[in-house]
Every structure is written in C-alpha cells, then in structure tokens.
C-alpha cells in the first residue's frame, strides 16, 4: 500500500565540512600537525644520532611535558576567558619562532660560530617553549571546534578532525624522514636537517594564515571567581563524572606505558638498521593505520556500543605493541605499527565524542585543560618512561613491558565499568548513566 512517510535520508558524511569555520579549523590543524610531526621525527633522530643516548631521547618528552602539564589548567582558564582566534595567532607565532631558533642552531654554515655544547640545550629549550604553547593550544582549539559546528554533528566532526590529524601524521614523518635522508644527495651542500626545517617553517606559515581566516570566538562564559576556585571547578567536574574520568584514565595509562614512538630511532639505527628513511616509514605506518581506520569510521561509526568498542580498541593497541617488540623483520614491524595506529584511532574517536557531549559550554576550556593534563602530554611523558625503561631494562623488554601493562589496565577498567559495555551512545550520554559505574 502507498504511504505518505518520507523515505529515510542517508547520513551526510560531509555534514561538518559544510561549515566555513570548521573547514578553516581542519586546514589549520592539518598544516600545523604536518609541520609538527616532521619536526618531532627529525629532532628525535638528530638528537639520538648526535648522542647515541636513550636518556637524551627520554628528555625530549620530559622537556615538552613539564610545561604542558604544569600550566595546562591555567591554559584552560585563559581559553574560557579570552577570544580564541587571537590566542591561536599568538600561539602559532611562538611555535614558529621556536622552530626558527632550532633551524638556526642546526645550520651547518653556522657551526663555526655556535659551540657544539650549545646545540642540545637550545633544542631542549625550544622544545620546552613548544610545551608552553601546547598548554594553551589544546583548550583554545577544543572550544573553537565545539562552536564551529552544531552539537548534533560532533560525531561526524570528530571523525573529520581526527582524520585530518592522522593524515598529517602520515605525511609529516614520511616527508621529514625522506627529506632528512635524501636532501644531501639531491642538493649538494644542503643538509637534511636544514632542508627539513625549511619545509616545516613554510607549513607553519600556512597554518598561521588559516588561523587568521577564522572568525572571532569570544568567551561564552567569563569566570567571576578567582582563578583557583575556577580551576578547582574544572577538576571537580572531571573527577566526579565517572565516565569521563575512566575514559581519560584508560587513555592516559595505556599511552604512558604503551607508547613506542620515542624508541623508534633506536629501532631504526640499532635493531632494524633502516636509517632515517626507515624511521619516517615506521612513523608513517602508525598514522596510516589510524587514518585509514578513521576514514572507514566516517561510514561505519564505532559509537553504536562506544564503551565496548573502546575497551576492545585499547586491548588491541596493547597486543600490537607486544608483537612489535618481538618482531625482527622490518615489514612485519610495519604491520604491527599499522595495527597500533588503527586501534588507537578508534579510541581517539570514541573518547573525543564522549568528551564533547559530556562537557557543558561554560567549562569547555577548563575541562579541555584537564584532558591535556591526562591525555595531551601522556605521549611526551610516555616517551620519557620509554626512554628510561629502555635504559634500565633494554629496548625490547621495555616495549614488551609497556604492552603488557596496557593489557592489565584494560582488564582493570573492564572490571570497573562492565555495566557500560552494552549501552549505546544515547544511553551513556543520559545523566543517570554515570551512576552505573562501580
């Protein structure tokens, strides 16, 4: 029989991209991430090549994590109080100046004028400055994302946002490793480090232009209480929301123990013996797995049973790390790094969507700051842990230990949150859902 009911419409996979500010946000994030991933890749290799010290690698993460964690709450407070576009312009300008300083100190032509004992301190100082910038960058971009698209498009926007980050994370390390390894052969007299930083600076300038194209994002809520009371309110909100707390904790400890990125220069030079080009490919493999998975998730969302899928993804992340540590074949190692990125991307999408949905507008800056303390700097703190563990235990045992600890953390979280596993996204978002957590 004929019916007057309209035919169901297919979901619009490009819905978030139809908003101008969101497109500028995505472009800015892509070019900045591309440049930053290139910089991280070549700095790790350059410092390890210079020192052959795992402790030196560990201090790269620590130099960035200390300021990023130390003033993260203040960064969130500022993001709630001030206009976000202006904040990003200042942040990006500062990161550009830090990259320019690193470019200068590593120039071969200036080597006669810069004592070799100054190179490492200057690099660590600029990494520290990047950590300061990150304390403000995360809360500012979190607020811009939230107000660039309607709330009902957050899952779609989160997928596109994470995908742009992952695609840049594929191209950045691959490009950085290739330029670092081949520039000297293609252009005589030009070092790989110099050529790489020229590209980094160019991409940072593009990101700065895209920030300028954003509209202004004035504060939605200006805290009237003193800063300490305001920051305590943000902390209290996260720690009393059990779903958010467990999601952040799961990500924090899995990345803290399970990260292997800091040790990739050791694998590239000493274990797999594939050089800077191989390092770029290894860094790319993780991001390629993440990006392809996120593109798939645009069509097949993991949000039907988000908590179940989150636990499965983090468990897969831990197993991939253990397998990578046991592998001695370069191409097999790439497969495990690909799987690590794929599982991690599922976790990022789910946690990002839950955070956006559970956070009220007037607390987005401060909640994002708490998230930065838990998650944003866990990679760098994890890098420090990995470097110290490799020094004390050996590189391979340190990687296997990290993957095993990740599996233990998933098991503990599963036992604490079993009642969330069958719930849909709508049910988890409901106010009473928080009460079912043990």
UniProtKB/TrEMBL annotation:
The protein, known as: Multidrug efflux pump Tap
PROSITE patterns in the cross-refs: MFS (PS50850)
Keywords, alphabetical: Cell membrane, Membrane, Transmembrane, Transmembrane helix, Transport
Family classification: Belongs to the major facilitator superfamily. Drug:H(+) antiporter-3 (DHA3) (TC 2.A.1.21) family.
Subcellular compartments: Cell membrane
Cellular component, GO, one term: plasma membrane
GO molecular function, one term: transmembrane transporter activity
